[in-house]
Amino acid sequence: MTDVIALAKTSLSHTLAALGALALGAAAVAPAQAQTVSGSDSFNLPEDVSFILAPLDPNVRRATARVNGSIITGTDVDHRVALILAAQDANVQVSPEEISRLRLQVLRNLIDETLQVQEAEAQEMAVTDEEVNQSYARYAAEARGMSVSEMDAYLASIGSSAGSIKRQIKGELAWDRLLRRNVAPFVNVSEGEVNELYQRLQASRGTTEYRIGEIFLAATPANAEQVRANANQIIEQLRAGGSFVAYARQYSQASSAVQGGDLGWLQVAQLQQPTLEAAVQQMQPGQLVGPLEIPGGYSILLMIDQRTLGMADPRDAVLSLKQISLEFAPGTPGPEIERRAAEFMSTVQAMRGCGDADAAAAAIGASTVDNDAIQVRQLPEAFQNLLLQLNVGQVTPPFGELPSDIRVLMLCGRDDPEQTGGPSVQDIMASLEEDRINRRAQRYRRDLRRDAVIEYN
Question: Where does the signal peptide begin and end (predicted)?
Answer without folding.
Answer: 1-34
